[in-house]
Amino acid sequence: MVEDKLSFIKEVKRRRTFAIISHPDAGKTTLTEKFLLYGGAIRSAGSVKSRRSAKYAVSDWMEIEKQRGISVTSSVLQFEYDDFCINILDTPGHQDFSEDTYRTLMAADSAVMVIDCSKGVEDQTKKLFQVCKMRGIPIFTFINKMDRMGKDPFDLMEDIENVLGIRSCPVNWPIGSGKNFKGVYNRHENQIEVFNDGNHGQSIAETITGDLTDEKFTGLLGETLHEQLKSDIELLDIAGDNFSLEEVLNGNLTPVFFGSALTNFGVEPFLKSFLDITTPPKARASNLGDINPESTNFSGFIFKIQANMNPAHRDRIAFLRICSGKFDKGMMVNHVQKGKKVKLAQPQQFVATDRVIVDSAYPGDIIGIHDPGIFNIGDTLCEDGSKLEYADIPQFAPEHFARISTTNSLKRKQFLKGITQLSEEGAIQVYKRPNIGMEELIIGVVGVLQFEVLEYRLKNEYGVEVSKQLLPYRHIRWIANEGIDYSDLSLTMDSMLVVNKNEQPVLLFQNEWSIRHILERNEGIELKEHS
Ligand code: G4P
Protein backbone atom coordinates (compact mmCIF):
# COMPACT_ATOMS: atom_id res chain seq x y z
CA MET A 1 0.00 0.00 0.00
CA VAL A 2 2.84 2.37 0.96
CA GLU A 3 4.50 1.31 -2.28
CA ASP A 4 1.30 2.15 -4.20
CA LYS A 5 1.05 5.57 -2.60
CA LEU A 6 4.70 6.32 -3.39
CA SER A 7 4.36 5.35 -7.03
CA PHE A 8 1.14 7.39 -7.24
CA ILE A 9 2.92 10.48 -5.90
CA LYS A 10 5.76 9.89 -8.33
CA GLU A 11 3.27 9.86 -11.19
CA VAL A 12 1.71 13.14 -10.01
CA LYS A 13 5.09 14.81 -9.66
CA ARG A 14 6.15 13.99 -13.20
CA ARG A 15 3.01 15.52 -14.77
CA ARG A 16 3.21 18.85 -16.60
CA THR A 17 -0.03 20.18 -18.07
CA PHE A 18 0.10 23.36 -20.11
CA ALA A 19 -1.62 25.29 -22.87
CA ILE A 20 0.09 26.87 -25.84
CA ILE A 21 -1.24 30.28 -26.76
CA SER A 22 -0.36 32.51 -29.68
CA HIS A 23 -1.59 34.76 -32.40
CA PRO A 24 -2.25 32.76 -35.60
CA ASP A 25 0.88 31.98 -37.58
CA ALA A 26 3.32 32.67 -34.75
CA GLY A 27 4.32 29.00 -34.90
CA LYS A 28 2.31 27.27 -32.19
CA THR A 29 1.58 24.21 -34.31
CA THR A 30 5.17 23.91 -35.44
CA LEU A 31 6.43 24.17 -31.87
CA THR A 32 3.91 21.57 -30.62
CA GLU A 33 5.05 19.22 -33.32
CA LYS A 34 8.68 19.72 -32.42
CA PHE A 35 7.90 18.89 -28.79
CA LEU A 36 6.40 15.63 -30.02
CA LEU A 37 9.50 15.02 -32.10
CA TYR A 38 11.80 15.54 -29.12
CA GLY A 39 9.58 13.37 -26.98
CA GLY A 40 9.76 10.60 -29.56
CA ALA A 41 5.97 10.62 -30.06
CA ILE A 42 6.47 11.19 -33.78
CA ARG A 43 9.47 10.06 -35.78
CA SER A 44 9.94 13.01 -38.07
CA ALA A 45 8.50 16.46 -38.27
CA GLY A 46 6.74 17.65 -41.39
CA SER A 47 3.14 16.71 -40.80
CA VAL A 48 2.58 20.29 -39.73
CA LYS A 49 -0.33 21.81 -41.56
CA SER A 50 0.49 23.76 -44.62
CA ARG A 51 -1.94 25.85 -46.51
CA ARG A 52 -0.08 25.14 -49.67
CA SER A 53 0.78 21.49 -49.46
CA ALA A 54 -2.45 20.48 -47.70
CA LYS A 55 -0.71 18.64 -44.88
CA TYR A 56 -2.23 19.09 -41.49
CA ALA A 57 -1.07 19.41 -37.95
CA VAL A 58 -1.31 16.49 -35.61
CA SER A 59 -3.73 18.38 -33.43
CA ASP A 60 -6.17 19.41 -36.16
CA TRP A 61 -9.35 17.43 -35.89
CA MET A 62 -12.23 18.82 -37.79
CA GLU A 63 -12.58 18.95 -41.53
CA ILE A 64 -13.21 22.66 -41.34
CA GLU A 65 -9.85 23.10 -39.70
CA LYS A 66 -8.20 21.34 -42.58
CA GLN A 67 -10.07 23.37 -45.15
CA ARG A 68 -9.29 26.64 -43.50
CA GLY A 69 -5.87 25.63 -42.25
CA ILE A 70 -6.65 26.89 -38.78
CA SER A 71 -7.34 25.26 -35.45
CA VAL A 72 -10.95 25.58 -34.42
CA THR A 73 -11.32 23.13 -31.59
CA SER A 74 -8.86 22.94 -28.77
CA SER A 75 -7.11 19.64 -28.64
CA VAL A 76 -5.13 17.72 -26.09
CA LEU A 77 -2.01 15.69 -26.59
CA GLN A 78 -0.01 13.55 -24.21
CA PHE A 79 3.58 12.48 -24.60
CA GLU A 80 6.66 11.58 -22.56
CA TYR A 81 9.93 13.48 -22.46
CA ASP A 82 12.79 12.49 -20.15
CA ASP A 83 10.97 11.43 -17.03
CA PHE A 84 8.10 13.84 -17.57
CA CYS A 85 4.61 13.01 -18.68
CA ILE A 86 3.40 16.03 -20.64
CA ASN A 87 -0.15 17.08 -21.45
CA ILE A 88 -0.38 19.86 -24.03
CA LEU A 89 -3.63 21.71 -24.43
CA ASP A 90 -3.75 23.31 -27.83
CA THR A 91 -5.89 26.41 -28.11
CA PRO A 92 -7.39 27.78 -31.29
CA GLY A 93 -5.25 30.72 -32.30
CA HIS A 94 -7.59 32.19 -34.85
CA GLN A 95 -8.71 35.67 -33.98
CA ASP A 96 -12.33 34.59 -34.16
CA PHE A 97 -11.82 32.00 -31.50
CA SER A 98 -14.46 30.72 -29.14
CA GLU A 99 -15.15 30.31 -25.47
CA ASP A 100 -13.56 26.93 -25.78
CA THR A 101 -10.17 28.61 -25.70
CA TYR A 102 -10.90 30.32 -22.44
CA ARG A 103 -12.14 27.11 -20.89
CA THR A 104 -9.13 25.17 -22.03
CA LEU A 105 -6.99 27.57 -20.05
CA MET A 106 -8.97 26.58 -16.95
CA ALA A 107 -7.62 23.04 -17.32
CA ALA A 108 -3.98 24.12 -17.71
CA ASP A 109 -1.39 24.61 -14.95
CA SER A 110 0.76 26.94 -17.04
CA ALA A 111 0.87 28.49 -20.49
CA VAL A 112 3.45 28.85 -23.22
CA MET A 113 3.05 32.04 -25.19
CA VAL A 114 4.54 31.88 -28.68
CA ILE A 115 5.49 35.21 -30.23
CA ASP A 116 6.72 35.88 -33.77
CA CYS A 117 9.98 37.85 -33.44
CA SER A 118 9.11 40.05 -36.40
CA LYS A 119 5.69 40.98 -35.04
CA GLY A 120 6.05 41.19 -31.27
CA VAL A 121 2.94 40.93 -29.10
CA GLU A 122 -0.17 40.70 -31.30
CA ASP A 123 -3.85 41.20 -30.53
CA GLN A 124 -4.89 37.61 -30.05
CA THR A 125 -2.05 36.97 -27.64
CA LYS A 126 -3.20 39.90 -25.53
CA LYS A 127 -6.69 38.48 -25.14
CA LEU A 128 -5.48 35.02 -24.18
CA PHE A 129 -2.87 36.49 -21.93
CA GLN A 130 -5.54 38.39 -19.98
CA VAL A 131 -7.30 35.10 -19.24
CA CYS A 132 -4.05 33.56 -17.97
CA LYS A 133 -3.45 36.59 -15.82
CA MET A 134 -6.98 36.47 -14.41
CA ARG A 135 -6.30 32.89 -13.33
CA GLY A 136 -2.76 33.68 -12.16
CA ILE A 137 -1.23 30.92 -14.23
CA PRO A 138 2.49 31.08 -14.98
CA ILE A 139 3.33 32.19 -18.51
CA PHE A 140 6.45 31.19 -20.42
CA THR A 141 7.35 33.12 -23.55
CA PHE A 142 8.93 31.52 -26.60
CA ILE A 143 10.03 34.11 -29.14
CA ASN A 144 9.95 32.22 -32.40
CA LYS A 145 11.22 32.54 -35.96
CA MET A 146 14.65 33.79 -34.92
CA ASP A 147 15.92 32.34 -38.21
CA ARG A 148 14.19 35.32 -39.85
CA MET A 149 15.00 38.98 -39.45
CA GLY A 150 12.96 40.30 -36.58
CA LYS A 151 12.81 43.02 -33.98
CA ASP A 152 15.71 43.61 -31.62
CA PRO A 153 15.50 41.18 -28.63
CA PHE A 154 15.62 44.07 -26.15
CA ASP A 155 12.72 45.76 -27.98
CA LEU A 156 10.76 42.50 -27.87
CA MET A 157 11.18 42.29 -24.12
CA GLU A 158 10.04 45.87 -23.77
CA ASP A 159 7.05 45.08 -25.96
CA ILE A 160 6.05 42.19 -23.68
CA GLU A 161 6.39 44.34 -20.60
CA ASN A 162 4.54 47.34 -22.04
CA VAL A 163 1.74 45.63 -23.89
CA LEU A 164 1.08 42.79 -21.47
CA GLY A 165 2.05 44.52 -18.27
CA ILE A 166 4.22 41.64 -17.03
CA ARG A 167 7.92 41.72 -16.27
CA SER A 168 10.18 39.50 -18.35
CA CYS A 169 13.40 37.64 -17.67
CA PRO A 170 15.28 36.01 -20.55
CA VAL A 171 16.46 32.52 -19.62
CA ASN A 172 18.24 32.19 -22.91
CA TRP A 173 19.43 34.88 -25.27
CA PRO A 174 19.76 34.68 -29.05
CA ILE A 175 23.13 34.72 -30.71
CA GLY A 176 22.56 36.56 -33.98
CA SER A 177 19.33 36.50 -35.93
CA GLY A 178 18.01 35.76 -39.39
CA LYS A 179 20.56 33.88 -41.48
CA ASN A 180 23.05 34.62 -38.73
CA PHE A 181 21.07 32.96 -35.94
CA LYS A 182 23.74 30.69 -34.54
CA GLY A 183 22.36 29.55 -31.25
CA VAL A 184 21.43 30.66 -27.76
CA TYR A 185 23.16 31.56 -24.53
CA ASN A 186 21.62 29.76 -21.59
CA ARG A 187 21.75 32.16 -18.63
CA HIS A 188 20.77 29.51 -16.10
CA GLU A 189 23.57 27.20 -17.11
CA ASN A 190 25.94 30.05 -18.12
CA GLN A 191 26.49 28.18 -21.31
CA ILE A 192 26.62 28.93 -25.02
CA GLU A 193 24.76 26.47 -27.24
CA VAL A 194 25.67 26.84 -30.89
CA PHE A 195 23.67 24.81 -33.33
CA ASN A 196 25.40 22.66 -35.86
CA ASP A 197 24.55 23.45 -39.44
CA GLY A 198 22.48 20.88 -41.23
CA ASN A 199 18.89 20.10 -42.03
CA HIS A 200 17.46 20.48 -38.57
CA GLY A 201 13.87 21.01 -39.67
CA GLN A 202 13.02 17.35 -39.46
CA SER A 203 15.46 16.03 -36.95
CA ILE A 204 16.83 17.08 -33.60
CA ALA A 205 19.31 19.98 -33.60
CA GLU A 206 22.81 19.08 -32.45
CA THR A 207 24.70 21.66 -30.44
CA ILE A 208 28.23 22.58 -29.46
CA THR A 209 28.25 23.86 -25.90
CA GLY A 210 30.68 25.74 -23.73
CA ASP A 211 31.47 28.72 -21.58
CA LEU A 212 30.72 32.33 -22.64
CA THR A 213 34.41 33.19 -22.66
CA ASP A 214 35.50 29.99 -24.40
CA GLU A 215 37.70 31.09 -27.29
CA LYS A 216 36.44 28.38 -29.60
CA PHE A 217 33.26 30.44 -29.98
CA THR A 218 35.13 33.39 -31.45
CA GLY A 219 35.94 31.08 -34.34
CA LEU A 220 32.48 29.53 -34.48
CA LEU A 221 30.50 32.74 -34.12
CA GLY A 222 32.90 35.32 -35.50
CA GLU A 223 34.34 38.07 -33.34
CA THR A 224 31.49 40.54 -33.83
CA LEU A 225 28.74 38.14 -32.69
CA HIS A 226 30.79 36.83 -29.80
CA GLU A 227 31.55 40.35 -28.53
CA GLN A 228 27.93 41.42 -29.05
CA LEU A 229 26.76 38.43 -27.00
CA LYS A 230 29.13 39.23 -24.14
CA SER A 231 27.96 42.83 -23.97
CA ASP A 232 24.26 41.83 -24.22
CA ILE A 233 24.66 39.39 -21.33
CA GLU A 234 26.48 42.01 -19.27
CA LEU A 235 23.66 44.48 -19.89
CA LEU A 236 21.01 41.91 -18.97
CA ASP A 237 22.84 40.99 -15.79
CA ILE A 238 23.03 44.62 -14.73
CA ALA A 239 19.73 46.03 -15.94
CA GLY A 240 17.38 43.07 -16.35
CA ASP A 241 14.92 41.61 -13.88
CA ASN A 242 16.32 38.83 -11.76
CA PHE A 243 14.81 35.42 -12.17
CA SER A 244 12.50 34.59 -9.29
CA LEU A 245 10.71 31.25 -9.27
CA GLU A 246 8.07 32.61 -6.95
CA GLU A 247 7.28 35.55 -9.24
CA VAL A 248 7.09 33.20 -12.23
CA LEU A 249 4.77 30.80 -10.45
CA ASN A 250 2.53 33.68 -9.38
CA GLY A 251 2.28 34.87 -12.99
CA ASN A 252 4.11 38.18 -12.36
CA LEU A 253 7.29 37.41 -14.30
CA THR A 254 7.56 35.59 -17.60
CA PRO A 255 10.72 33.63 -18.40
CA VAL A 256 11.65 34.38 -22.02
CA PHE A 257 13.27 32.01 -24.51
CA PHE A 258 14.39 32.63 -28.08
CA GLY A 259 14.46 30.07 -30.86
CA SER A 260 13.18 28.84 -34.14
CA ALA A 261 10.60 26.08 -34.11
CA LEU A 262 11.01 25.47 -37.82
CA THR A 263 14.73 24.73 -37.68
CA ASN A 264 14.54 23.22 -34.14
CA PHE A 265 16.99 25.81 -32.84
CA GLY A 266 16.40 26.49 -29.17
CA VAL A 267 13.45 24.13 -28.92
CA GLU A 268 15.04 21.53 -26.69
CA PRO A 269 16.75 23.99 -24.33
CA PHE A 270 13.38 25.68 -23.99
CA LEU A 271 11.53 22.45 -23.32
CA LYS A 272 14.10 21.34 -20.73
CA SER A 273 14.07 24.64 -18.82
CA PHE A 274 10.32 24.93 -19.04
CA LEU A 275 9.80 21.47 -17.56
CA ASP A 276 12.34 22.22 -14.91
CA ILE A 277 10.77 25.53 -13.83
CA THR A 278 7.09 24.56 -14.01
CA THR A 279 5.48 22.64 -11.23
CA PRO A 280 3.41 19.47 -11.18
CA PRO A 281 -0.36 19.95 -10.71
CA LYS A 282 -1.13 22.17 -7.74
CA ALA A 283 -4.02 22.16 -5.30
CA ARG A 284 -7.32 23.36 -6.83
CA ALA A 285 -10.01 25.45 -5.23
CA SER A 286 -13.34 23.76 -4.48
CA ASN A 287 -16.37 24.36 -2.27
CA LEU A 288 -14.67 22.09 0.31
CA GLY A 289 -11.39 24.04 0.28
CA ASP A 290 -8.25 23.35 -1.74
CA ILE A 291 -7.96 19.79 -3.02
CA ASN A 292 -4.45 18.38 -2.98
CA PRO A 293 -3.59 16.44 -6.18
CA GLU A 294 -1.75 13.90 -4.04
CA SER A 295 -4.95 12.99 -2.22
CA THR A 296 -5.81 9.44 -3.24
CA ASN A 297 -9.52 10.23 -3.62
CA PHE A 298 -10.22 10.59 -7.31
CA SER A 299 -11.71 13.90 -8.52
CA GLY A 300 -11.81 16.00 -11.67
CA PHE A 301 -13.93 18.40 -13.68
CA ILE A 302 -15.31 18.60 -17.20
CA PHE A 303 -14.00 21.60 -19.09
CA LYS A 304 -15.03 20.82 -22.63
CA ILE A 305 -17.60 18.80 -24.49
CA GLN A 306 -17.20 17.94 -28.12
CA ALA A 307 -19.50 15.96 -30.36
CA ASN A 308 -18.75 14.16 -33.60
CA MET A 309 -15.07 14.96 -33.33
CA ASN A 310 -14.02 12.33 -35.75
CA PRO A 311 -16.28 10.85 -38.45
CA ALA A 312 -14.81 7.42 -37.64
CA HIS A 313 -16.07 7.76 -34.04
CA ARG A 314 -19.46 9.46 -34.17
CA ASP A 315 -19.81 10.25 -30.53
CA ARG A 316 -19.85 12.92 -27.91
CA ILE A 317 -16.81 13.26 -25.69
CA ALA A 318 -16.47 15.11 -22.42
CA PHE A 319 -12.94 16.23 -21.55
CA LEU A 320 -12.09 15.63 -17.94
CA ARG A 321 -9.17 17.23 -16.16
CA ILE A 322 -8.08 14.95 -13.33
CA CYS A 323 -7.34 16.95 -10.18
CA SER A 324 -6.67 14.29 -7.53
CA GLY A 325 -6.43 10.54 -7.08
CA LYS A 326 -5.82 7.81 -9.59
CA PHE A 327 -8.24 7.09 -12.38
CA ASP A 328 -8.86 3.47 -13.35
CA LYS A 329 -10.75 2.39 -16.43
CA GLY A 330 -14.32 1.38 -15.66
CA MET A 331 -14.37 3.02 -12.25
CA MET A 332 -17.66 4.20 -10.77
CA VAL A 333 -17.66 7.86 -9.88
CA ASN A 334 -20.01 10.28 -8.30
CA HIS A 335 -21.39 12.86 -10.73
CA VAL A 336 -21.86 15.59 -8.14
CA GLN A 337 -24.16 18.01 -10.02
CA LYS A 338 -26.51 15.22 -11.15
CA GLY A 339 -26.25 13.34 -7.84
CA LYS A 340 -25.69 10.09 -9.73
CA LYS A 341 -23.13 7.33 -9.98
CA VAL A 342 -21.62 6.92 -13.44
CA LYS A 343 -19.24 4.36 -14.84
CA LEU A 344 -16.29 5.74 -16.83
CA ALA A 345 -16.09 2.90 -19.29
CA GLN A 346 -14.14 3.94 -22.42
CA PRO A 347 -11.71 6.62 -21.33
CA GLN A 348 -9.52 7.93 -24.12
CA GLN A 349 -6.33 9.83 -24.41
CA PHE A 350 -4.95 11.61 -27.42
CA VAL A 351 -1.45 10.69 -28.40
CA ALA A 352 -0.08 12.33 -31.54
CA THR A 353 -2.58 11.48 -34.29
CA ASP A 354 -4.25 8.64 -32.41
CA ARG A 355 -6.80 8.11 -29.73
CA VAL A 356 -6.03 5.31 -27.31
CA ILE A 357 -8.05 3.73 -24.55
CA VAL A 358 -6.42 4.41 -21.19
CA ASP A 359 -6.32 2.00 -18.29
CA SER A 360 -5.22 4.53 -15.74
CA ALA A 361 -4.55 8.24 -15.49
CA TYR A 362 -3.26 10.67 -12.87
CA PRO A 363 -3.78 14.25 -11.67
CA GLY A 364 -2.82 16.64 -14.48
CA ASP A 365 -3.98 14.22 -17.16
CA ILE A 366 -6.85 14.98 -19.48
CA ILE A 367 -9.04 12.10 -20.53
CA GLY A 368 -11.91 12.00 -22.95
CA ILE A 369 -14.94 10.15 -21.63
CA HIS A 370 -17.93 8.98 -23.57
CA ASP A 371 -20.85 11.29 -22.87
CA PRO A 372 -24.33 9.91 -23.40
CA GLY A 373 -25.64 13.45 -22.89
CA ILE A 374 -25.31 13.63 -19.10
CA PHE A 375 -22.38 15.97 -18.66
CA ASN A 376 -22.22 19.74 -18.63
CA ILE A 377 -19.20 22.00 -18.69
CA GLY A 378 -18.01 22.59 -15.14
CA ASP A 379 -19.37 19.29 -13.73
CA THR A 380 -17.33 17.63 -11.00
CA LEU A 381 -16.73 13.89 -10.85
CA CYS A 382 -15.35 12.35 -7.67
CA GLU A 383 -14.79 9.00 -6.12
CA ASP A 384 -16.27 9.31 -2.69
CA GLY A 385 -19.76 10.35 -1.78
CA SER A 386 -18.73 13.90 -0.88
CA LYS A 387 -20.35 17.01 -2.30
CA LEU A 388 -17.09 18.27 -3.73
CA GLU A 389 -17.53 20.87 -6.48
CA TYR A 390 -14.69 22.60 -8.28
CA ALA A 391 -14.91 26.34 -8.81
CA ASP A 392 -17.23 27.31 -11.67
CA ILE A 393 -15.84 27.73 -15.14
CA PRO A 394 -16.82 31.28 -16.08
CA GLN A 395 -19.15 31.84 -19.01
CA PHE A 396 -17.84 34.51 -21.29
CA ALA A 397 -20.13 37.13 -22.76
CA PRO A 398 -20.76 36.66 -26.49
CA GLU A 399 -19.61 39.55 -28.65
CA HIS A 400 -21.24 38.63 -31.97
CA PHE A 401 -24.85 37.83 -32.73
CA ALA A 402 -26.77 36.48 -35.71
CA ARG A 403 -30.34 35.60 -36.56
CA ILE A 404 -30.39 31.96 -37.63
CA SER A 405 -33.26 29.97 -39.11
CA THR A 406 -33.57 26.76 -41.08
CA THR A 407 -34.25 27.11 -44.79
CA ASN A 408 -36.36 23.94 -44.77
CA SER A 409 -39.15 23.82 -42.19
CA LEU A 410 -39.30 20.01 -42.49
CA LYS A 411 -35.85 19.91 -40.90
CA ARG A 412 -36.90 21.86 -37.84
CA LYS A 413 -36.35 18.93 -35.48
CA GLN A 414 -32.79 18.30 -36.65
CA PHE A 415 -32.15 22.05 -36.57
CA LEU A 416 -33.12 22.24 -32.90
CA LYS A 417 -31.19 19.06 -32.07
CA GLY A 418 -28.03 20.48 -33.64
CA ILE A 419 -28.47 23.86 -31.96
CA THR A 420 -29.03 22.18 -28.57
CA GLN A 421 -25.95 20.02 -29.02
CA LEU A 422 -23.72 22.96 -29.93
CA SER A 423 -25.11 25.00 -27.09
CA GLU A 424 -24.39 22.17 -24.61
CA GLU A 425 -20.84 22.02 -25.91
CA GLY A 426 -20.62 25.70 -25.03
CA ALA A 427 -19.83 26.67 -28.63
CA ILE A 428 -22.84 28.99 -28.96
CA GLN A 429 -25.35 30.72 -26.72
CA VAL A 430 -28.98 30.57 -27.78
CA TYR A 431 -31.63 33.28 -27.42
CA LYS A 432 -34.90 34.11 -29.11
CA ARG A 433 -37.23 37.06 -29.44
CA PRO A 434 -39.94 36.96 -26.75
CA ASN A 435 -43.23 35.44 -27.93
CA ILE A 436 -41.70 34.11 -31.13
CA GLY A 437 -41.31 30.37 -31.76
CA MET A 438 -38.08 28.43 -32.11
CA GLU A 439 -38.04 28.68 -35.93
CA GLU A 440 -35.84 31.71 -35.69
CA LEU A 441 -33.12 31.98 -33.09
CA ILE A 442 -30.63 34.61 -32.06
CA ILE A 443 -27.24 33.00 -31.62
CA GLY A 444 -24.45 34.65 -29.63
CA VAL A 445 -20.78 33.67 -29.98
CA VAL A 446 -17.48 34.89 -28.58
CA GLY A 447 -15.67 34.65 -31.93
CA VAL A 448 -17.34 35.18 -35.28
CA LEU A 449 -15.75 32.03 -36.71
CA GLN A 450 -18.13 30.04 -34.52
CA PHE A 451 -20.91 30.96 -36.95
CA GLU A 452 -19.05 29.16 -39.68
CA VAL A 453 -18.48 26.19 -37.42
CA LEU A 454 -22.21 26.26 -36.59
CA GLU A 455 -23.26 26.30 -40.26
CA TYR A 456 -20.72 23.66 -41.17
CA ARG A 457 -21.66 21.29 -38.39
CA LEU A 458 -25.42 21.73 -38.84
CA LYS A 459 -24.99 20.86 -42.50
CA ASN A 460 -22.55 17.99 -42.10
CA GLU A 461 -23.79 16.40 -38.90
CA TYR A 462 -27.51 17.18 -38.99
CA GLY A 463 -28.19 17.71 -42.71
CA VAL A 464 -29.62 21.18 -42.06
CA GLU A 465 -29.02 24.27 -44.18
CA VAL A 466 -29.53 27.55 -42.37
CA SER A 467 -29.88 31.15 -43.31
CA LYS A 468 -27.87 33.59 -41.26
CA GLN A 469 -28.19 37.32 -40.80
CA LEU A 470 -25.42 38.96 -38.82
CA LEU A 471 -26.69 41.49 -36.28
CA PRO A 472 -24.83 44.66 -35.32
CA TYR A 473 -24.85 44.01 -31.53
CA ARG A 474 -21.56 43.70 -29.64
CA HIS A 475 -22.57 43.82 -25.96
CA ILE A 476 -24.88 41.72 -23.84
CA ARG A 477 -26.43 42.49 -20.46
CA TRP A 478 -28.64 40.33 -18.28
CA ILE A 479 -31.55 42.08 -16.60
CA ALA A 480 -31.07 41.52 -12.88
CA ASN A 481 -34.49 42.74 -11.64
CA GLU A 482 -36.59 39.71 -10.61
CA GLY A 483 -39.95 39.31 -12.35
CA ILE A 484 -39.66 42.50 -14.37
CA ASP A 485 -42.33 43.07 -17.04
CA TYR A 486 -39.94 43.58 -19.91
CA SER A 487 -42.69 44.53 -22.37
CA ASP A 488 -42.77 47.89 -20.57
CA LEU A 489 -39.10 48.64 -21.19
CA SER A 490 -38.26 51.67 -23.24
CA LEU A 491 -35.65 50.52 -25.78
CA THR A 492 -33.63 52.34 -28.43
CA MET A 493 -33.06 51.58 -32.11
CA ASP A 494 -29.62 50.21 -31.34
CA SER A 495 -30.67 47.66 -28.73
CA MET A 496 -32.68 44.45 -28.79
CA LEU A 497 -34.53 42.43 -26.18
CA VAL A 498 -34.19 38.64 -26.30
CA VAL A 499 -34.82 35.82 -23.83
CA ASN A 500 -32.71 32.80 -22.98
CA LYS A 501 -34.00 29.24 -22.73
CA ASN A 502 -35.44 29.94 -19.26
CA GLU A 503 -37.30 32.97 -20.64
CA GLN A 504 -35.01 35.31 -18.74
CA PRO A 505 -34.70 38.69 -20.42
CA VAL A 506 -31.40 39.73 -21.95
CA LEU A 507 -30.51 42.94 -23.75
CA LEU A 508 -28.19 43.26 -26.75
CA PHE A 509 -26.50 46.55 -27.52
CA GLN A 510 -24.51 47.97 -30.41
CA ASN A 511 -22.24 50.08 -28.21
CA GLU A 512 -21.51 51.20 -24.64
CA TRP A 513 -23.36 54.43 -25.27
CA SER A 514 -26.67 52.63 -25.86
CA ILE A 515 -26.23 50.72 -22.57
CA ARG A 516 -26.00 54.02 -20.70
CA HIS A 517 -28.96 55.35 -22.64
CA ILE A 518 -31.19 52.40 -21.64
CA LEU A 519 -30.14 52.78 -17.99
CA GLU A 520 -31.17 56.45 -18.11
CA ARG A 521 -34.46 55.77 -19.89
CA ASN A 522 -35.54 52.95 -17.55
CA GLU A 523 -35.17 54.04 -13.97
CA GLY A 524 -34.45 51.23 -11.52
CA ILE A 525 -33.35 48.73 -14.14
CA GLU A 526 -30.31 46.68 -13.12
CA LEU A 527 -28.05 45.21 -15.79
CA LYS A 528 -25.48 42.49 -15.15
CA GLU A 529 -22.44 41.72 -17.28
CA HIS A 530 -22.70 37.99 -16.53
CA SER A 531 -25.59 35.57 -16.43
P1 G4P B 1 0.24 28.64 -35.79
O1 G4P B 1 -0.05 27.23 -35.40
O2 G4P B 1 0.67 29.51 -34.66
O3 G4P B 1 -0.84 29.29 -36.60
O4 G4P B 1 1.53 28.64 -36.77
P2 G4P B 1 2.21 27.47 -37.59
O5 G4P B 1 2.99 26.58 -36.71
O6 G4P B 1 1.22 26.84 -38.51
O7 G4P B 1 3.25 28.33 -38.43
C1 G4P B 1 2.83 29.35 -39.30
C2 G4P B 1 3.86 29.52 -40.41
O8 G4P B 1 5.09 29.92 -39.84
C3 G4P B 1 4.15 28.25 -41.17
O9 G4P B 1 4.48 28.64 -42.48
C4 G4P B 1 5.38 27.70 -40.47
O10 G4P B 1 6.16 26.86 -41.30
C5 G4P B 1 6.11 29.00 -40.18
N1 G4P B 1 7.03 28.88 -39.03
C6 G4P B 1 6.80 28.34 -37.81
N2 G4P B 1 7.89 28.43 -37.03
C7 G4P B 1 8.83 29.05 -37.78
C8 G4P B 1 10.20 29.41 -37.53
O11 G4P B 1 10.76 29.20 -36.47
N3 G4P B 1 10.84 30.04 -38.55
C9 G4P B 1 10.25 30.30 -39.76
N4 G4P B 1 10.99 30.91 -40.68
N5 G4P B 1 8.99 29.97 -40.02
C10 G4P B 1 8.29 29.34 -39.06
P3 G4P B 1 3.46 28.54 -43.70
O12 G4P B 1 4.13 29.20 -44.85
O13 G4P B 1 2.13 29.01 -43.31
O14 G4P B 1 3.36 27.02 -43.92
P4 G4P B 1 4.47 26.06 -44.54
O15 G4P B 1 4.17 26.06 -45.98
O16 G4P B 1 5.80 26.61 -44.23
O17 G4P B 1 4.22 24.76 -43.86
Q: What this model shows, in words?
A:
This protein is an alpha+beta fold. It has three domains: 18-72 and 109-277, P-loop containing nucleotide triphosphate hydrolases (Rossmann fold, 3-Layer(aba) Sandwich), CATH 3.40.50.300; 299-382, Elongation Factor Tu (Ef-tu), domain 3, CATH 2.40.30; 400-528, Peptide chain release factor 3, domain III (Alpha-Beta Plaits, 2-Layer Sandwich), CATH 3.30.70. Strands 2-3-1-4-5-11-6 form a seven-stranded mixed β-sheet, with helices on both faces. Strands 16-15-21-12-13-20 form a six-stranded antiparallel β-sheet. Strands 7-8-9-10 form a four-stranded antiparallel β-sheet. It is globular, with a radius of gyration of 25 Å. Residues 47-61 and 68-74 have low confidence and may be disordered. Bound molecules: guanosine-5',3'-tetraphosphate. Guanosine-5',3'-tetraphosphate (G4P) binds next to helix 2.
Blueprint (SSEs and pairs):
Blueprint: H1 2-13, E1 15-22, H2 28-39, H3 63-68, E2 75-81, E3 84-90, H4 99-106, E4 110-116, H5 123-135, E5 139-144, H6 153-164, E6 167-170, E7 172-175, E8 183-186, E9 191-195, E10 207-210, H7 216-221, H8 223-239, H9 245-249, E11 253-258, H10 267-277, E12 299-307, E13 316-324, E14 327-328, E15 332-335, E16 340-343, E17 348-351, E18 354-357, E19 360-361, E20 366-370, E21 380-382, E22 400-406, H11 412-424, E23 429-431, E24 440-445, H12 449-462, E25 466-471, E26 475-479, E27 495-499, E28 505-509, H13 512-521, E29 527-528
Parallel strand pairs: 1-3, 1-4, 4-5, 5-11, 6-11
Antiparallel strand pairs: 2-3, 7-8, 8-9, 9-10, 12-13, 12-21, 13-20, 14-19, 15-16, 15-21, 17-18, 22-24, 22-25, 23-24, 26-28, 26-29, 27-28
Helix pairs in contact: 4-5, 11-12
